[in-house]
Amino acid sequence: DAKTTQPPSMDCAEGRAANLPCNHSTISGNEYVYWYRQIHSQGPQYIIHGLKNNETNEMASLIITEDRKSSTLILPHATLRDTAVYYCIVRLSGSARQLTFGSGTQLTVLP
Amino acid sequence: EAQVTQNPRYLITVTGKKLTVTCSQNMNHEYMSWYRQDPGLGLRQIYYSMNVEVTDKGDVPEGYKVSRKEKRNFPLILESPSPNQTSLYFCASSSRTDIAPYEQYFGPGTRLTVT
């Protein structure tokens, strides 16, 4: 699976959009980008995934650059409850191997 | 409500005393997995199961056993716990992993302390 690079921490004002970047410059054509988050010591929670096109669901939007070497997770209106560690994961579809959670980005939403 | 449950949520035990952490999912998922999370090491997979009676080792299987006799349950067994197994444990499940992509659902975690 491709390696990902994320900033260790970010702050965001409550009500504003949080934009979390992820670099995955070695991604291959059939690898998906997944985002999970983990609120302190709780189980990780799936947010969104994508292959090439931008994706949106009720939680977030995922913007993948045309060359697929980086992506951005957007939380459109961050709340205090969005404070968590956000993990960007790249992996092959259909693989039984585990998700590899790196260090992630600690997002702190400030009141 | 779709969920993965783990029991117990917290456990303090002594070295060598066998214990079992249960995991159950209500989503009819084929795939289940156990992870441990330690500071600075992220989540590491212990064992996984592709379906009933099919289990395989993850990255850190030493000192652990699992079984998958029913689709919904995937217990983690520590036959002789040691202090280096003190950790936060997560169970996860997902639908078939040969059909991509998939979303893993995680349980709430079990914090184990071995003294």
Topology, element by element:
The complex is a heterodimer of chains A (111) and B (115).
Chain A: E1 9-13, E2 18-23, E3 31-38, E4 45-50, E5 55-56, E6 61-64, E7 70-75, E8 84-92, E9 105-110
Parallel strand pairs in A: 1-9
Antiparallel strand pairs in A: 2-7, 3-4, 3-8, 5-6, 6-7, 8-9
Chain B: E1 4-7, E2 10-13, E3 19-25, E4 31-38, E5 42-51, E6 54-57, E7 65-66, E8 76-78, E9 87-94, E10 105-106, E11 110-114
Parallel strand pairs in B: 2-11
Antiparallel strand pairs in B: 1-3, 3-8, 4-5, 4-9, 5-6, 7-8, 9-10, 9-11
Using the CA coordinates, give the radius of gyration of chain A. 13 Å
Shape category of chain B: globular
Straight-line N-to-C gap of chain A: 37 Å
Question: Which sheet architecture does the biggest sheet of chain A show?
Answer: 5 strands, mixed
Percentage of residues in strands of chain A: over 45%
Major protein interface:
A-B, 23 and 29 residues
Would you list the SSEs of chain A in sequence order as H and E?
EEEEEEEEE
Strand portion of chain B: over 45%
Notable characteristics:
heterodimer; A: 111 residues; mainly beta; 9 strands; globular; B: 115 residues; four-stranded antiparallel sheet
Would you mind describing this structure in some detail?
The complex is a heterodimer of chains A (111) and B (115). Chain A has 111 residues and is mainly beta. Chain A has strands spanning 9-13, 18-23, 31-38, 45-50, 55-56, 61-64, 70-75, 84-92, 105-110. In chain A, the strands form two sheets. In chain A, strands 1-9-8-3-4 form a five-stranded mixed β-sheet, with no helix packed on it. In chain A, strands 2-7-6-5 form a four-stranded antiparallel β-sheet, with no helix packed on it. In chain A, a hairpin with a 6-residue loop joins strand 3 and strand 4 (45-50). In chain A, 36% of the residues are buried. In chain B, 0% of the residues lie in helices and 50% in strands. In chain B, a hairpin with a 3-residue loop joins strand 4 (31-38) and strand 5. Chain B has strands spanning 4-7, 10-13, 19-25, 31-38, 42-51, 54-57, 65-66, 76-78, 87-94, 105-106, 110-114. The mean pLDDT of chain B is 92. In chain B, strands 2, 4, 5, 6, 9, 10 and 11 form a seven-stranded mixed β-sheet that branches. In chain B, strands 1-3-8-7 form a four-stranded antiparallel β-sheet, with no helix packed on it. Chain B is mainly beta and 115 residues long. Chain B is built from no helices and eleven strands. The chains are: A mainly beta (111), B mainly beta (115). The A-B interface holds A 32, 34, 36, 41-46, 49, 51, 92-103 and B 4, 31, 33, 35, 42-45, 48, 50, 56, 58-59, 88, 90, 92, 97-101, 103-109, 111.
